[in-house]
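A note from the maintainers: we've had questions about how concatenated examples are separated. There is no special marker in the raw files; a new sequence line simply starts the next protein. For clarity in this README we add a label.
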Amino acid sequence: MIRIAIPNKGRLHDPTVSLFKEAGLPVLEGATRKLFAKTTDPDITFLFARAADIPEYVQDGAADVGITGLDLISETGADVDVILDLEFGRAKLVLAVPDDSPITSPQDLEGMRVATEFPNITKRYFEELGVNIEVVKVSGACEMTPHVGIADAIVDISSSGTTLLTNHLKVIEDVFSSSVRLITNRESAAEKEKIQYIKTAIESVLHAKGKRYLMMNVPADKLDAVKNVLPGLAGPTVMKVESDDTILAVHAVVDADVIFSTVSKLKDVGAGGILVIPIERMMV
């Protein structure tokens, strides 16, 4: 039995559940008040946990696989294998001070106090710079601490910067970049084959994002022109149309963000009957 620890709430929960659904492993018992939930595979179970606890759950073997942020993995120092960047939940830990502060660099904070929910990352950051600071650990509302005299600066998570602006804080340095990762227990050797299947299923969803499948009819004498428009992953697939020897069926995978211009170019060079189809999963 494989246990996959996933965030039980917060900004990472819904994207994680959606990703597994797209990968063919949906949550069958979706109530997050439960500790466990079944999947379509009888040998795989989801374990709902706080995102911050998941690195240690995986390290200690309570879960074989986990989904959580790289910032939380680094903060806990958990001894796990990070095997895949899931390409969502991107954010930065930033060093910020009040708008009216004279501080303009990390070095200006020598001997001062820095509030954060990430004390270990913050300590390592300033140690590498050779700057001595006092870390003030907080569990929430970090952005308020400089305004009430608790700290001179903060190190906090920021995805859009809106919260910092609202609280009259300015960023003076990026400290750490994070995104959501797939992690595994180092000793789950007996389950490695199944874990690889899970990784492959998720990768197939990630590869498919931002891609579209094009199908079209092309006059045989226009094939070279179409190929110049459609390189595809390894060149387009070309097949005969049984009802008409002068027409070929051409299929290709292209980036979604160039669909508009690509279809226009295809029509210009003689392609017709063009279909644009979303791709759910793609093995490469």
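[label: protein 2]
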Amino acid sequence: MGADPVSRTALFGGSFNPVHWGHIRPVAAARRRFRLDRVVYLPAARPPHKTGRRFEDPFHRFACLARCLAPHPGLVLSPYELHRPGTATVETLAHFRSILEGELYLILGSDSLLQFHTWREPERILDLARLIVLARPGAEAHREALPPFLAREWGRRVLPFVHPRVGTSSTLLREALAAGRIPRGWMPAAAVQYIRIHQLYREV
């Protein structure tokens, strides 16, 4: 009999304030590309590096994200960081490393990768998990801007995944929603419905 296949889990954190297609389509594509069994979404109670910004109630962000992920196999949701405000990424990874077998990955955007060396214990993070970087075309330019400990792991522990740009952001969405507009095609229909029912993002 052959060896059992290795389980592959990726973590994907963020505020999802609000969720949009840029949080779902590239991640679903990365799941297929790297043959991940699951991607665990981890909405944060309040990201410590995003100061001075208004966040909708964590319950609403969690519930809205749950509705948007439901149609996507392998994209699952965890409240782990909601119950632990201020939890560092390295702490979250250590927790999931302790309860999961197989390979562990962390999905992040290319902009976050450029700030990665400022995170708590970045080299330990790289020991705990491989990084899948959602990169736009021209990803090699990001490699040149990285500190040496990251640049030398490019293609090994740091895995770029180039995807077409999704033309939206949570910031632009919050501005539009505050003005009473919901741009077509920026969000899953489930998010639009949830935001309308609960009258969210009326102010920024």
